[in-house]
Write a structure and sequence with these properties.
The chain is of the alpha/beta class. It contains 17 helices and 23 strands.
Length: 526
């Protein structure tokens, strides 16, 4: 007697091989048996006729650290078939934090949520809190380099002292011992942008000792893309640690066509013994905060220092002069806080400037950041479809949303965020597998399952095999597709029929169940 029996499906087990006919029997949260199970019984039977049965998808790049605390159902991720997400990306994680930083986070999330009853400082405390509150999917945490730097030396633009390096190493080691799978850097964001290569190598040596990963949002994804990739490779090679390149892309029309050079560089690094991989989202637009458009010096000293600079007219003029002069007709405002500026969500910065009668869009950027206290989201169209496809075809590249767990209802349903938070995985299966045939279906599934599982060292996930945890997706290969758009992003995909996390059904054809069977995963030695 199984807890659940999935019958009549075409099983793609995640290894990259072709589908087979097999039934899947699930007991006590794990896959118990596979094969012809027609003589077996179960408490719940799923008829997967004309459907694909595969491992649950692993989102290799997610920013749901705080979203999971305020909305553990993680609707926009679960509906995609995501059963595990890697959080703590781009240099920022929920922990470790000091009281001042935690209070700032609580204020940012104050609208619609109550975080006053929770508190944490260390990675161990944060992961325990997630476990206590419950989550619908599994999460694998990283620790942000920015967190380490803030706690050791604040947000100043300077080199760390030996004592401060030692402090960062200590904090990193504590996070790894608590279960973090590695460290992420965000080298276009403060304070990570102020670090040099030697600082990152020193920390990566701690990662090497623990066989943990170095995830990097590299310094530049445009004109200095190859140089920035070489830095990440040098860090991994010098420290002896494994490297993951975050959201691999070539940004800016002048850099279109560089995908081949990028992949060649990664392949060469692997041929020389460096275990390097990457993740990618299947869109030609990126998303970040509008403050990322400001020059690095504007962030020196942290958020309060930035707000003071935005209040000074002469300093704002200098910021404007140091910003990129063009591209604002391809930059959509995705999120603001004030009701007065809600009308600009979904409009380009150039359109905002026109509405305000401003000739230079950079002035509109300054005005919005002043009015919104530097809290504005932006979506930027900057990649070529050909590069997206070529990067996607690399065997080194897995799938990641680079988005957060959102919901169509409530505070997490506001604004016009990048549709990747709702559509990434179904978009690969629908657009790039079925329609454009950029990938074979089994290869795409492997990029979503066994490749990230093996990279992370999740040896009992990422495959459909007896003894593995029953993270399972059942989808219609002829119907699966994303529905989220840049103008209407809060839309679930179609064609994902069932999603099971640790043996418990979370998504069925009718609804998302109230179950919270997810686990906080913790790193073990590979």
């Amino acid at each position: 007697m199984f807890d659940c029996l999935i019958v009549n499906g075409r099983v793609i087990n995640g290894s990259g091989g072709p589908w087979i006919r097999a039934d899947v029997g699930i007991k006590d949260g794990r896959i118990s048996r596979m094969g012809n199970l027609s003589d077996c019984e179960a408490e719940e039977v799923i008829d997967a006729d004309d459907r694909v049965v595969c491992p649950g998808f692993i989102d290799a790049h997610s920013h749901s650290d705080f979203n999971l605390l305020v909305n553990p159902q993680a609707e926009s991720k679960i509906h995609q078939g995501i059963t595990t997400e890697v959080i703590g990306q781009c240099g920022t994680s929920a922990a470790p934090v000091d009281e001042e930083r935690l209070e700032m986070v609580k204020q940012q999330w104050a609208e619609g949520f109550d975080l006053e009853d929770v508190s944490w400082s260390t990675m161990q405390q944060y992961l325990s809190l997630l476990t206590e509150r419950g989550i619908a999917l599994n999460c694998a945490p990283l620790v942000g380099h920015g967190n380490l730097r803030r706690l050791a030396m604040g947000e100043d633009d300077r080199e760390p002292t030996e004592k401060e390096i030692s402090k960062m190493k200590q904090l990193l080691s504590e996070a790894l011992q608590a279960g973090a799978f590695g460290m992420s850097s965000g080298l276009i964001y403060p304070p990570g942008m102020y670090s040099d290569t030697q600082e990152l190598i020193a920390l990566a040596e701690v990662l090497a000792e623990e066989d943990a990963l170095y995830f990097s949002h590299i310094r530049n994804e445009g004109d200095r893309l190859l140089q920035s990739l070489r830095e990440a490779i040098d860090i991994g090679r010098s420290a002896g640690c494994r490297v993951q390149i975050s959201h691999l892309k070539a940004v800016g029309e002048d850099n279109w066509g560089m995908a081949a050079q990028v992949i060649d560089l990664l392949n060469d690094a692997r041929s020389r013994g460096l275990e390097i991989t990457a993740d990618q989202y299947p869109y030609t637009a990126s998303a970040t905060g509008l403050t990322a458009s400001l020059p690095g010096w504007a962030h020196d000293g942290g958020r309060e220092a930035l707000l003071q600079r935005l209040a000074d007219e002469d300093t704002c003029q200098r910021m404007k002069q140091d910003m990129e002069p063009d591209g604002w007709d391809r930059a959509l405002i995705s999120r603001v806080r004030s009701d007065e500026n809600k009308k600009y969500e979904g409009q380009t910065v150039a359109e905002v400037a026109q509405d305000r009668g401003i000739e230079d869009p950079r002035e509109a950027v300054i005005q919005l950041l002043q009015e919104e206290e530097a809290n504005v989201g932006v979506v930027k169209f900057g990649m070529s479809e050909d590069d997206v496809c070529q990067i996607m075809q690399s065997s080194l590249v897995m799938v990641g949303t680079d988005g957060s767990a959102l919901s169509p209802q409530g505070p997490l349903g506001k604004g016009k965020p990048h549709p990747r938070s709702y559509g990434t995985f179904p978009r690969v299966l629908g657009r790039y597998v079925r329609e454009q045939q950029v990938l074979r279906l089994s290869a795409a599934v492997a990029k979503m399952t066994s490749l990230p599982a093996a990279t992370l060292g999740l040896w009992d996930r990422g495959l459909l095999s007896p003894g593995f945890w029953a993270d399972v997706v059942v989808f219609d290969p002829n119907e699966v597709h994303d529905q989220a758009t840049f103008t209407e992003p809060h839309q679930f995909p179609r064609g994902i029929d069932y999603v099971m996390v640790n043996g418990e059904i979370v998504i069925d054809p009718d609804r998302q169940r109230d179950a919270l069977p997810g686990q906080v995963l913790r790193r073990t030695s590979r």
